[in-house]
Amino acid sequence: MRILLGITGGIAAYKAANLVRALAESGHNVQVLPTKNALEFIGKSTLEALSGNPIGTELYEDVQEVRHVKLGQDAELVLVAPATANFLAKLANGIADDLLMNAILASTAPVVVCPAMHTEMWLNPATKANVAILESRGIRVMEPASGRLTGGDSGPGRLPETQDIIDFAITGSRSFAGKSVVVTAGGTREPIDEVRYIGNSSSGRMGIELAVAFRNQGATVTLVACNIERELPAGINVIEASSVSELELAMDQEADILVMAAAVSDFELKAPHQGKLHRGSPLSLEMTPTKDLLAGYAANHESTFCVGFALAENGSDLTHVATEKMWAKGVDAVVGNTVSALGAKDSAVHLVTKSGSSEKSGSKQEIAKWLVAELGATMSSS
């Protein structure tokens, strides 16, 4: 494989020597492209000797060869290790101010970045936002390891070990490769008249993060987006739906996995008003229950691994609520959460499967990654 290995200017750059050697010894053609700051930490001669390829860092060298485009076009994989906070920010915003950034933007190859930085920088909201942007575009971001950092500090931000990076970027298991996944997200809206509706406050954030997490694990993902007012991720097939009936039609497709993360209305008007209702006398609305889409899908697609969500009042026993819903709906797993999760960035969930239960709290991005890993483990053991 032709690998473009970017090295950025952090203390962990010295570890890139082992990575270059390991990749080259595995038979890969490694073109190393360090930034000028990276060469403050590791020598150009070392990288050339280990890779067997010459190295240039100047954007305006060999201009006649349009080198930044050629580097990007030749690569079958772009791997950046270590990736500093500054690099993540530039990549998230498409700032092409050096040869490495130009080559990445000129490439259509998969991109994998391995961040390494001080703990406070990794946990900074700006860095987390940049990581979320990159992942939404299909760029795979490896979680840094925890351990000794520069100076006497320890914590998350350490560059993972060489073999862990290779496993993640090249030889590692992408647990849902070849699988088709349908994820529903957002909240349905049932019309009262032609301008008003009955809806809910679901933002669709959890469903979007789940779709991204499945995509990053190699799945072919279809996201059924119900009234989501935020940018949707790249590399995912998106079908828009609004009402329960539209959602039912959009999700009725064969898939290996269905994740029903959308907040579906329990009731609809028996007879929505044609036109616009006007203010006047008190109004009574006759409501009827909507279809149970999750139970219906599970009954009609017996080979699909079906995952539901159970929304409970704050303070509820989520494991109990999720367990009851799993058996009532005839599905394989249920994620229990509380109403406080609606529209929030963070959450706490309980995952119940037929083999047991577990729980996780954190950002919805962190929870989504965890859920996908847990579901993968559950499916592989069944």
Describe this structure in words.
The chain has 13 helices and 19 strands. With 382 residues, the protein is an alpha/beta fold. It folds into 2 domains: 2-171, 3-Layer(aba) Sandwich (Rossmann fold); 180-269 and 284-381, CoaB-like (Rossmann fold). Helices cover 33% and strands 26% of the residues. A hairpin with a 5-residue loop joins β6 (145-148) and β7 (154-158). An 8-stranded mixed sheet has the order 12-11-8-13-16-17-18-19, with helices on both faces. A 5-stranded parallel sheet has the order 2-1-3-4-5, with helices on both faces. A two-stranded antiparallel sheet has the order 6-7. The two termini are 35 Å apart.
Distance between the termini: 35 Å
Portion of residues within helices: 25-40%
Please state the average pLDDT score.
Answer: 90
Q: Which regions contain 5 or more consecutive residues with pLDDT less than 50? A: none
Separate helix tally: 13
Q: What is the number of E strands?
A: 19
Assembly level:
single chain
DSSP strand content: 25-35%
CATH architecture of the largest domain: 3-Layer(aba) Sandwich
CATH T-level topology of the largest domain: Rossmann fold
Largest sheet: 8 strands, mixed
Gyration radius from CA atoms, angstroms: 24 Å
- Based on CA inertia axes, which overall geometry fits? elongated
Strands ordered across the widest β-sheet:
12-11-8-13-16-17-18-19
So, the CATH homologous superfamily of the largest domain? CoaB-like
How many domains? The number is 2
CATH class of the largest domain: Alpha Beta
User: What class do helices, strands and sheet pairing give?
Assistant: alpha/beta
